[in-house]
Amino acid sequence: xxxxxxxxxxxxxxxxxxxxxxxxxxxxxxxxxxxxxxxxxxxxxxxxxxxxxxxxxxxxxxxxxxxxxxxxxxxxxxxxxxxxxxxxxxxxxxxxxxxxxxxxxxxxxxxxxxxxxxxxxxxxxxxxxxxxxxxxxxxxxxxxxxxxxxxxxxxxxxxxxxxxxxxxxxxxxxxxxxxxxxxxxxxxxxxxxxxxxxxxxxxxxxxxxxxxxxxxxxxxxxxxxxxxxxxxxxxxxxxxxxxxxxxxxxxxxxxxxxxxxxxxxxxxxxxxxxxxxxxxxxxxxxxxxxxxxxxxxxxxxxxxxxxxxxxxxxxxxxxxxxxxxxxxxxxxxxxxxxxxxxxxxxxxxxxxxxxxxxxxxxxxxxxxxxxxxxxxxxxxxxxxxxxxxxxxxxxxxxxxxxxxxxxxxxxxxxxxxxxxxxxxxxxxxxxxxxxxxxxxxxxxxxxxxxxxxxx
Length: 455
Known about the structure:
Layout: E1 3-4, H1 7-14, E2 23-30, H2 36-47, E3 55-58, E4 68-71, E5 81-85, H3 92-103, E6 114-122, E7 125-133, H4 139-147, H5 175-178, H6 185-194, H7 198-207, E8 224-228, E9 232-233, H8 234-243, H9 248-266, E10 276-283, E11 297-304, H10 311-326, H11 330-341, H12 346-357, E12 362-368, E13 375-376, E14 379-387, E15 396-403, E16 406-414, H13 421-437
Parallel strand pairs: 5-6, 10-12, 12-15
Antiparallel strand pairs: 1-4, 2-7, 2-14, 3-4, 6-7, 8-16, 9-16, 10-11, 13-14, 15-16
Helix pairs in contact: 1-11, 7-11, 8-9, 8-13, 9-10, 9-13
């Protein structure tokens, strides 16, 4: 039976562009090689029960009406599972290049819109790279789907108290792990239900000036590049937040702002007079719908205080701005705009998306993941990262994801606009270290050794 796409899912389908593919991309890194047979069995038992992974998108006859989900009568799992190997020596640079290449490769629109690549030869283990079209699900839903494939012990099928089973055999995250990094979605819904200042918020979004032209702006190309950091201990970030009376989220986004300042300054921008905005997705999915596919999020536009050179003063100012956004209804209004875009004529669609996208220079996500280590097909997941597409023809996306008491930052970028995403990662590490080190007690200097007088 055919099922129409929701308006917001149709909007993400129609945003597809050869230079800006609407895919959510995620990687899971394993400490040992995955057994291909056991991995395939896990996919069959836990992923395929979700209808969307066996359905393709078909346009309505004569283009009248929304596109539809239709069961793929020729569905073949082999078309979606691929096994590849990194060229020797199989290091991080080779993996980043492969991720960038796959980010640049469109999905086959005649089949269900997802693929998984099991990558061998990475530091003695395996990497699972998943690509999923945004019309199937947003980033929060993708993480939930990937986690539905996992267990809390190497022995599949054993559950842990406090985590409930879901269809597909996996687990759902608790509320505090999928709640928005910026604001409680239930609070945002409360604003929407009361209609508090929604009209004012919409007017402010419409009248918001475009972000300034920088090296981050420009025509996009087909090629994309990816980079990510090493795992950063979450406890150290929490300690820095406690010292500066800031949240973990404040610390991380302030480090992103500092990284952008360092990067843009290195490319000749006058950063002392520059401020740009980040478009940040905010989860609006209730916890009981954690494994529902589709898109259920709004956007807020965070003005990043790049012009402030001091990391501490920048953090203080960012916290003020973040608190102001938490009290707004911006996410609900932007969700309504995205929903409406799914219904506008195609002739108006591109100008509307470009107008919306002009308000920011970077897409930024910050998602809290599970606190404990997880396993898939008997192998431990040591790290994970994901990237959302840069909608609105933006050329830069930065993602922050926590997992197992560690944090990683990832960068996805247009190869022409940001050819060196590793520099942004290094700048983030530097800025975060400054925030984590500031205010810590310094060890007293060792006393100089007494020297015997010369004879």
